[in-house]
Amino acid sequence: MHKRSSLLLISAALWTSAIGTSYGSDSSSVPIQLDGTTMPFSGRVMNDQTFVPLRDISELLNFSVKWDESSQSITLVKGSKEILLHIGKADVSVNGHDLFLNSTPEIIDDRAFVPLRFIAENLGTEVKWQPNTHTVALRSIPESPILISNQKEQSGDSDISIKIQYPQLDGLADPTVQTNINRILKERVDSFKKNNIGTLRESLVELHDAGAKNMTMAIDCNYEVKYNQNGLISFFFRDYIYSGGAHGMTYASSLTLNTTTGKVYSLPDLFQDDSYVPIINRTVSQYFTEQIHEPLSGFTSIPRDQNFYLSPEGLVVYFQLYEYTPYAYGFPEVVIPYTDLDSLMTIHL
Question: InterPro entries attached here (predicted)?
Answer without folding.
Answer: Cu_amine_oxidase-like_N, DUF3298, Mao_N_sf, PdaC, PdaC/RsiV-like_sf
